[in-house]
Structure formats: C-alpha cells, structure tokens
Amino acid sequence: MPDQALPGPPLRVLVADDNPVVRAGLSALLDAHPDIRVVAQAANGAEAQASATRARPDVVLLDVRMPGTDGLTALPALARLAPVMMLTYSREPEVVAEALRLGAVGYLVHGEFTAEELITAVRDLRDRRPTFTASAAAAVVSDAAVSNSVVPESASESVSESLSVSYEPNEFPSHVQPVMAQSSKARLAYAARLHGRDHNARDFGLSSREVEVMDLIAAGMNNRQIAATCFISEKTVKNHINRIFAKLHSSSRSEAIAYWLGTAHGGWNR
Question: Backbone dihedral region of 135: left (phi > 0), alpha (psi from -120 to 50 degrees) or beta?
C-alpha cells in the first residue's frame, strides 16, 4: 500500500520511552516516512518535558512506566505543549483512565497495532484525532461503567471492525461521554478480547504464554523476573524464549523486541 504522506512540512515527533531498543526502533520506523520526523527522544518524563520545551514537537508519543519521572507525572505539562498519545505496555483500566484525565489524546498498547496503524495514528494525532487499541478501548468502557459515563454508541462498532478505535475530536473529549447501550459495551469488550493480545500471536505463531513472556522481555525483564512474574521456573522461561526466538527468527533479545514491536525489517507485516 502506498504511503499516504501529508502535504506541508514534516510532522515533528517526540518519542519518550525508557527502553533504548524501543526508542530506536520507533524512531527508525517513523523517520522512514518523508512526512514524519523524530526531532527528539527521551528516556523518562523529565527528559521528555525538557526535550519538548526545546524541540517544540507537533506530537508526543509517551510511555507510562519510566524511571524517575514517569509518563503520567509528565503528561499534564507535555499535553500543554503538544497532543500526547500514550504508547506503552500498560493496559490497566485505571492507568488508561488516568492518562485520559491528565490530557492524553489517544492510547496504544504495544502488540495490538500494525506499523501502518501506528503511522496513521501519529498523523491523526496532529489533528487531535484519538486512536485507541482494543484493550485500551475496553479499559475506557470498563472505567466508564464504574463512573456511569460511557463511550458513544459508534465507538463499539469501530472496535468490532478494526484493531484500533478512532473518534473525531468532538466525539471523544478528555472525559468520556454518555450514553451507550449495555449490548454495545458487551460488543466492545468482546472485540477487545478477540483482537487484543492475540494479534501478535496470530502474526508470529506464538502461544498465549509465549506472548506473555515476549511482552515481559520487551518490558526489559530478565529471566529471573519473568519466572517470578509468571510463576514458572527459569528453565521454563528459557524454553519459552528459545521457541520465541525461533518463531521470530531472532538470535538476541534486542532483535526479538524489534520484531515484536514491528520495528525490524518485515516485523509487523511478515
């Protein structure tokens, strides 16, 4: 599919993530498009604020969990400078809801979108058009059900048709709007389960446990930490990693992460 480049000057992007492999991979992916230019990178929230003040990006891609100043802490200040989209492994409903409350325009969870969908989401972000991957959208609905505010009826239909959910700016302000029928909430939750964590498993042939282990590898955990998190032995972790590397045609953790995030050649679209 031909690249849908936008006219005018390149879209200036700030990438904030504590994982250097993720930062480098995302930057390479974005810079491969002539209408997008990564003007700054940051390893934590404090660096992101300083870089945004200096570089004045058009949009910001922000991780949640980073050392020192985390993404949520830095979010309000960054949102005053440019539209911010969370790009993270954190899919907890309370984290998604807090990010929206603090000013995030969209929320993408790694492993739930293709390279093409990410590029589209970044371009839409300049116009403050929100994009949410399935589990983030489901988290919004979950939080909305508790607070008695819910997303529009049209949102559930979007999730049923696509891995990501996009809304026009006037349809989805920072506080989620009423009112959506219970059946629509059920459809949205179902679509999230169907299209969420299983997306990369289908792409690469990974089992659900291997998806979990690969997510933890990409989050920077070592074998011991993964074993403790998954309640399995380190030997079992090593066995999972060997199978993952074989399926991802990778010989190292950094190479596997790059393929998993879609940043290596052919990664998302193999």
Answer: alpha
For residue range 164-194, list pLDDT tens digits in order: 444 443 333 333 322 222 333 333 333 333 3
- DSSP 3-state percent helix, strand, coil across the chain (nearest 5): 50, 10, 35
Tokens 């910001």, residue?
60
| End-to-end Cα spacing for the chain | 14
What percentage of the chain carries pLDDT values higher than 90? 34
Kindly report, residue by residue over 40-66, the tens digit of the pLDDT.
999 999 999 999 999 999 999 999 999
Per-residue burial over 194-222, b if 16 or more Cβ lie within 10 Å, else e, is ebbbbbbbebbebeeebbbbbbbbbbbbe
The tokens describing 132, both together, are 């949410």
Token pair of 67 as six digits: 């050392």
Residue 135, SS3 per DSSP: helix
Bridging pattern class, strands 164-166 and 131-133: antiparallel
